[in-house]
Prior knowledge:
By secondary structure, this protein is mostly beta strands. The chain has helices at 3-23, 122-127; strands at residues 25-29, 34-43, 46-50, 56-60, 64-68, 73-77, 82-89, 95-99, 102-106, 111-115, 130-142, 148-160, 164-177, 180-195, 200-211, 216-233, 237-252, 260-274, 279-288, 296-307, 312-323, 333-345.
Amino acid sequence: xxxxxxxxxxxxxxxALGVACAQADVVETKNGARLTGTVTKVDGGFITLATDYxxxxxxxxxxxxxxxxxxxLFIRLAGGTTMEGTVTATPDGQISVKGADGTxxxxxxxxxxxxxxGETDPAVAQLMRKWRYEANFDVSGKTGNSxxxxxxxxAKATLASPEDTLIFYTNFAYQRTNGVKSEDKLAVGVDYSxxxxxxxxxxxxxxxxxxxxxxxxxxxxxxxxxGYDFIKNPPKQKLTGRFGLSYRFExxxxxxxxxxxxxxxxxxxxxxxxxxxxxxxxxxxxxxSFEDFGNYRALHxxxxxxxxxxxxxxxxxxxxxxxxxxxxxxxxxxxxxxGKFVLNWE
Length: 346
């Protein structure tokens, strides 16, 4: 009699395990692997499977021979047909999508994308504007033969869609070397661009701030013009040139330095390239004055971003700020080498 409860428990456990397995989604690969969990999406040539034993994993769609789902999904095929239903495997190596409107037989390679009921169609989501945010900071110091303490940071908010991009940004830097202020500047700006055709954009931008080491108590550059994508291969690479008109204002603290109030050109070149494990960014801006083309300001920034844990990245780069006619006793060129920790989120 004592063995009956034990036998009954084993039968119930086996039955519960069988029910759990039956309720799990299944992905089978060409090498015979059978993976169970929950299929969360199929997109971009990958199938995403959430599991209890290995977390969330992605499987190349080209390596999958079939998959099955317990709950319905919205499924779009490569030809554009869209249907909501559950997926089951058929004996002839196909998959069957069964929904309220009928059944569609197809193959795994014909599935373009999926999304869960209640979620947004990825094709629609791609066209929607989406906010992305960034915050960065750095601290540096030195003691010994010289004393140095510096810190800086910045933030950026980007509202982007395939048709236009709006960016708000700010950054600051402060440093003292041997008790003397060697860097003290702030910049706040906005930049908007919108496509007129496949490669041509119009843009408007405005940036203001100060640079006390260069004796600029306040500056502002407003510009507008056209941009052209010489290379447009997202998300791998993009190279955009800009040509427009600007108005440049610089208020110098010293009475002996003439303030700048002049219209001029606005020329720029922006480049981004994504490697397997890093992203390279290059930006150049050149703003000469119409009154005197020898009076200009040129900015250059090049950096590499490396992913860290989660949403963190590390950015290392060089920044050059050149003013052709600076204030008295101020060097024309400031070069900054930096390393920053960057946090991104949406």
